[in-house]
Each structure stands twice: as structure tokens, then as C-alpha cells.
Design a protein that fits this description.
Largest sheet: 8 strands, mixed
Strand content: 25-35%
Distance between the termini: 24 Å
CATH superfamily: Nucleoside Triphosphate Pyrophosphohydrolase
CATH topology: Nucleoside Triphosphate Pyrophosphohydrolase
Radius of gyration: 18 Å
Number of strands: 14
Shape: globular
CATH class: Alpha Beta
Structural class: alpha+beta
Length: about 270
């Protein structure tokens, strides 16, 4: 399933989407980040886990997003116990070097655990089903008191890179004052685990059908940034999480362009180099 190479997306000018006052100057250098699209199968079909970010946050405040965040330098720790596709394979998928690829995968696993309580780890033969023993470690990770590699080593756990799939590559528009170079991953909720809202970054969370989330956005009940909206639009075509994970994707780096147009911001999608 290929996203259109060019697409104009009109959204209301609102908090959470900003344009620099000096937009004609050099763009802010984007920070590396990882986002995880967490899926599960429900009675009515495929559902995705969404978070409503706390208003007032420096980036995407008040918007509905997938779990994720910036890469921690310690996410590149090569000592992390690893199972699944190698960092070099991930580097090929996301067009980056092996060190950054390792950091992105580790960042994806860490952020997912911090923000949702879902732990994509276990042994080489099994995935953690009960995360209760790791509640204090989750808090320590969020406070940056420990690293992911340190936590996994102390708990005798292995990072399960095989539970993730590459999904997309988005870079925050050049016009914005805070920018991220974000690789999107997709994963299925492990059996026995549940996702929660025990994070300081969101004031509401929940599972929802992709089509329902889009309907909420159209009717003004939630705010979606273009990458989230388009991802949900793609996911609504799948009946199950396994089908979504099995879909082969071309990972194209996309840097949207923001163009003010009265009360709207026109978001022009055109895969390009930043």
C-alpha cells in the first residue's frame, strides 16, 4: 500500500502546530525519534492505541498521537540483549547506519514501555506476558534513572526486535520550531499484556478503530497531525493486526511543507530530502 507521492492536506491553524517566525532562515535540525503504532484485534475488527497529549506540551500538545518520543543516547548501547532482525537490517529499512538503527529500535521499545506499559521483550522463545514485576523499572526508565539496556540486563530479558515492523519515515516540517526525524514502527499487542495511560505525557488514552478516530477528527472531537491521520487512513483497510504487519511497505522519507492559508494550514506532502 503506497501513500500518494504528493498530497495537499488542509488543517485548521491550532495549538500543537506552529510555524517559526523566521521560517525563511535555516531550519531547526531535527532530533531522531521513534513512534510505535500499537495494534490489537477486537470483536469489531482492528484497533489502534492512541494517546491524547497533555495541552501545553512543547510538541503536539493537545493532539492525538501514537506512543513514541525522542531517542536517548543510551538507546545505542550495543550490549543490549537482542532477538530478531539485526540492527544492520533495520538500518537498511530506514536508510541509516547501524548505530542509529539500534538506537531507534531500542527507543521504540523503551518509549512503548514507558508510555503504555507494553513491553516488547522476553526470551528468544517467549514474550513477557506479565509486566507487573517491572512496574518500578518502568518508572525509573521514564525518569531516566536507568537505561533500557541496563533494565533488560538486570531483569534477564531480551529485546524482541522481531515483534516490530518498519512502517514509515516522517520528518517534522522545516517551518516548525521543534523538529523530529521520526521512524514509525508497527507492532501487535503481545498476548497477556495490556496498554494503559500511566504516563505524564497523556491525559487520555484508549483503543479505537482507525475509521472511528478519523471520524472524531473530522467532527472536531480530536486533533490529528497529518502523519497520524494518513496512517489511520491506511490502517482502516486491514481486518487484522497480522494483516497490517504482513503488508510490505516502501519506507520513504517524507518532509511535509506547511503553507499558511487564512485560517488553514496547507500541509503538502512530497517525499524529499531535508
Amino acid at each position: 500500500m503506497d501513500r500518494p507521492r504528493e498530497f495537499v492536506f488542509d488543517i485548521p491553524a491550532r495549538p500543537g502546530i506552529a510555524i517559526r517566525d523566521n521560517a525563511d532562515g535555516p531550519p531547526v535540525r531535527p532530533k531522531d525519534a521513534a513512534t510505535v503504532i500499537l495494534l490489537r484485534d477486537a470483536a469489531d475488527g482492528l484497533e489502534v492505541f492512541l494517546q491524547h497529549r497533555v495541552r501545553g506540551m512543547a510538541f503536539a500538545g493537545g493532539m492525538t498521537v501514537f506512543p513514541g518520543g525522542g531517542v536517548d543516547p543510551r538507546d545505542a548501547d550495543a550490549s543490549v540483549a537482542w532477538a530478531g532482525p539485526s540492527p544492520s537490517w533495520w538500518g537498511e529499512q530506514f536508510a541509516c547506519d547501524e548505530g542509529l538503527a539500534r538506537a531507534l529500535v531500542c527507543g521504540a521499545v523503551r518509549e512503548t514501555f514507558e508510555e503504555t506499559g507494553v513491553l516488547l521483550a522476553g526470551t528468544e522463545d517467549a514474550v513477557v506476558a506479565d509486566v507487573i514485576p517491572y512496574r518500578e523499572a518502568r518508572k525509573a526508565l521514564e525518569r531516566r534513572e536507568i537505561s533500557l539496556a541496563g533494565f533488560l540486563a538486570g531483569a534477564s530479558l531480551t529485546l524482541r526486535a522481531d515483534l516490530l515492523r518498519p512502517y514509515a519515515h516522517w520528518v517534522t516540517p522545516r517551518e516548525e520550531p521543534r523538529r523530529y526525524d521520526t521512524r514509525f514502527f508497527v507492532a501487535k499487542l503481545p498476548e497477556g499484556q495490556g496498554a494503559d495511560g500511566a504516563t505524564s505525557e497523556a491525559d487520555a488514552v484508549g483503543w479505537q478503530r482507525p475509521s472511528a478516530a478519523i471520524a472524531d477528527a473530522r467532527e472536531g472531537r480530536r486533533g490529528l497531525m497529518p502523519p497520524t491521520w494518513l496512517t489511520l487512513n491506511e490502517l482502516k483497510e486491514f481486518a487484522t493486526a497480522d494483516a497490517a504487519l504482513a503488508q510490505a511497505r516502501e519506507i520513504v522519507k517524507t518532509v511535509p511543507k506547511l503553507v499558511p492559508d487564512g485560517d488553514l494550514i496547507r500541509v503538502i506532502l512530497d517525499p524529499t530530502e531535508d
